[in-house]
Amino acid sequence: MKVVLTTLLLAASNIALLAQQRIKSIDDSVLRAAGKTEATAREWVTYSGNYAENRFSPLKQIDATNVQRLGLAWSMETESPSGGRVESTPLMHNGILYTSLAWDVIIAVDAHTGKMKWRWDPEIPRQHISELCCGPVNRGVALYKGRVYAGLLDGTLVALNEDTGKVVWRVKDTFNDDTTLTAAIRVVKGKLIVGSSGADHGVRGYFSAYDASTGKRLWRFYTVPGDPSKPFEQPELAMAAKTWTGEWWKMGGGGTVWDSMAYDPEADLLYIGTGNGGPWNQNLRSPQGGDNLFLSSILAVKPDTGKLVWYFQETPGDTWDYTAVQPMILADLMIDGKARKVLLHAPKNGFFYVLDRLTGEFIHGDKFIKHMTWATGLDAKGRPIEAKGARYKDGPVIVSPSPAGAANWQTMSFSPITKLAYLPGQEGSFTFNPVDATTWEYKPGGLNTGIVGFNGPFGRFRRGDRGVGTLSPHEPEGAENQPKASGGFLVAWDPVANKERWRVANAGGLGGGGTIVTAGNVVFHGSTAYHAETGQKLWEANLGGTYCNPISYELDGKQYIAILAGANAKNRLFVFALEAKQSIPQ
């Protein structure tokens, strides 16, 4: 009897300990450890699973030998408001899934059953914002010390109670109606890192740090210089201003930070990707050319102060909407026999970069798309070698990649087991037809790309703008030698050998969602699973519509794969597990 009683007491103690572990609030130590071991990967507590943003899950219950036995555990209609896309990555903590939907609606869902715990609608005004690029989207929330944080389309930053969804505080971040917040918030050392959006409308880009407890702004880093007749907000801008010409500050300049970030706790460096020029057309914002720092760049700053440590510009003098805000990954690799702490990046411009993340040094890179016409390669310092005629000034030019980019917001992942990065992308071209600079005027609140006849997923063209001359579109020199554009694809890229290992054609594109890779040697892209070493398709589920970025987590000893899929009001949250038998709603 004494042995039985002791056993029961030990079991009760273990249950209590497990309960304590489950209700532990997310703090700095949890974020630093996130995703490093099976134990710390049971929850998905930050946007890409960990500070390295590698979207690698050490969980391996689901592996390449059994993934074909995945079935639907449950699904639920998110009731995302109509008129906007869903692009967010869910987070999972304490058995609850948290995610954002169109128009910044945030929900908390029981991860066991799919039952809604709470729903919060900020009631963002539909007028005006529905006209902004690129629709009323939000890429995700952050969790920290019992609160849920999000940046909103009306330019405010909000903190909600994790258990109830009630507003704790809400502060204004932006300074005009054309700057919005669509990026997923990151938390670093008790600070909320917030990036701005809206460069297509001619705004000035920046990112900021806020105190997570109070909502007080601690610092702000402007990514492009303002009016040079006034004091610069930070010393780096004096140097940046020398790379601009004309009166760019009257049109904003661009450089918004609408997606990618990463953090290295050992180096204490925060990495930020910056966006395109505003207007796109450099002939309008900086008519005598120039690199236009810090557009389309990777910035490494100190998170306590926002002080710049190094920068690397990927598309100098951007004029094609080639943002550098696509997902980045931190990794430790052996390159040329030397241990390197690297940053991996595959932005819109179509090149895969490997940088030293401590110094910003370019190690190597190459194009990851086959159909590229704007540049012929990278020089020894990583600067693109532009193709002759790629810049549109005197008339329309057909260029690849298109403004959709060779890659976009869909996440890539990296496996420390295979040492490969798994990158979803697409190939396509676009005709850049410049406006007549003698008649064009910057209009606050409008789509200020400086392109004629622009109408598509990025916004609506401005009526009345006239193009330059009557020339027929031409392609940059050498375009005729490029392979035909192939549409969407998934590529496994070897950042050490600087080349692809395998490629799956006709995979994804803009609607295909991002990737995660697991210790079970499986890459999930949308609702399809591939062998991480070979690219062999192992499993697929038809969920319809468009896909977001999947996550993996563990509950009660079982591994799950969760993904948001379907556009607008038809969006659903799907959760899969081995041997689950629910029918997929049609």
Q: Top keywords for this entry?
A:
586 residues; mainly beta; Methanol Dehydrogenase, Chain A; 5-stranded mixed beta sheet; 6% helix; disordered N terminus
Structure description:
- The radius of gyration is 23 Å and the shape is globular.
- It has a five-stranded mixed beta sheet, with no helix packed on it. A four-stranded antiparallel beta sheet has the order 2-39-38-37, with no helix packed on it.
- It is built from four helices and 39 strands.
- The protein has 586 residues and is mainly beta.
- Mean pLDDT is 91; it is low at 1-21.
Mind telling me the C-alpha Rg? 23 Å
Which spans have pLDDT < 50 for at least 5 consecutive residues?
1-21
What would the average pLDDT be, to the nearest integer? 91
Under CATH at level 1, the class stands as: Mainly Beta
Instruction: Give the helix level as a range of percent.
Output: under 10%
Categorize the overall geometry. globular
Distance between the termini: 56 Å
In the CATH classification, which architecture applies?
A: 8 Propeller
User: What oligomeric assembly is this protein in?
Assistant: single chain
* Residues in β-strands, percent: 25-35%
User: Which structural category fits the helices and strands?
Assistant: mainly beta
Count of distinct structural domains: 1
Q: Sheet bearing the most strands, described? A: 5 strands, mixed
